[in-house]
Amino acid sequence: MPFQITAPIHGQLRAHADFSANSFDLHGRGEIDSPFILLDDFRVNGRPFPPHPHAGFSAVTCVFEDSRSGLRVRDSLGNDVQVQPGGVVWTQAGQGVMHQEMATSPGHELHGAQIFINLSGAHKLRPPQTLWLDSSEVPQWSSADGDRVRVLAGRFGSRSSALTPAEEITLLDVSLQQGLELPCGPGRYALLYAVSGQVRLSGPGADMGVALTAGQAAAFRGEGCVRLDAITPAHVLCLVGDSLREALVIHGPFIMNSRQQVSEAVARFESGLFGALAPLPCEPPTKE
């Protein structure tokens, strides 16, 4: 497949009490082979969301290092996890799980990215699992020029993450001062999001490139490396996964390959097979 880079992708503001996000609905904009369904650069105060169900995908939350609070994640598997700024929690919902995310420090803003990563048909009904790394456990690569790559999942250079999701996903948190190269590969799909600063992406062709400013994203695919250069110092997320060319049906918190699978997920949820997660005090009951 020839190397391709999209034009800048603009997010949409989603906001309500105690929550705001620069939101990218990749499937909704026609990126049908993307394994990344949604990316939200979010800011949260308080506990805006009660316990809720997921099935058929992974809900991944990475806490940015500038966050004033850590992240707490509870789930119906019995986990009650806390990670500090720089950490990541990977809720691989599979056949279905209940979970809830919130700031660990009431009154302090939680800033991070939540990414919905589709599971292929082979893994949609696997048992749910929650994986996590605290900030100190995330491997780091750095250059003499001041560039730094935190390897939340997958690998970069000689650094490999200890997270082991069902499918091969690379998730890199990049602090860019000068520039570096990011590999893609045949059958792979990559997404870059500029959290802050300005960067330029360029591919193997001399005329192939795009500039991103803070709050914009771009996708690339094909064999080769994309060059990422700082126009100004920048903070960038890089996600790479296998292109998925499967039928997709999204019904609220359920992402499946068919309407029948969605109906079966709803039935599992309604019959209690996702497990139970009691609301914390002063929260409304769970709704689908």
What do you see in this structure?
About 5% of the residues lie in helices and about 50% in strands. With about 290 residues, it is mainly beta. The chain has one domain (about 10-270): Jelly Rolls (Sandwich), CATH 2.60.120. Strands 1, 2, 14, 15, 18, 19, 20, 21, 22 and 23 form a ten-stranded antiparallel beta sheet that branches. A seven-stranded antiparallel beta sheet has the order 3-4-5-12-7-10-13, with no helix packed on it. The protein has a four-stranded antiparallel beta sheet with strand order 6-11-8-9, with no helix packed on it. The longest helix is centred in the last third of the chain and has 12 residues, at about 260-270. It starts with a strand and ends in an 18-residue tail after the last helix.
In CATH, what is the class? Mainly Beta
Structural class: mainly beta
Continuous helix count: 1
Let me know the average pLDDT: 92
Question: How many DSSP-defined strands?
Answer: 25
According to CATH, the fold-level topology is Jelly Rolls
CATH architecture: Sandwich
Mass-distribution shape? globular
Distance between the termini: 40 Å
Integer-rounded radius of gyration: 18 Å
User: Could you name the CATH homologous superfamily?
Assistant: Jelly Rolls
Number of domains: 1
Unreliably modeled segments: none
What order do the SSEs take from the amino end to the carboxyl end, as H and E? EEEEEEEEEEEEEEEEEEEEEEEEEH
Q: What proportion of the residues is helical, as a percent range?
A: under 10%
What amount of the residues lies in strands?
over 45%
Could you describe the largest sheet, including whether it forms a barrel?
10 strands, antiparallel
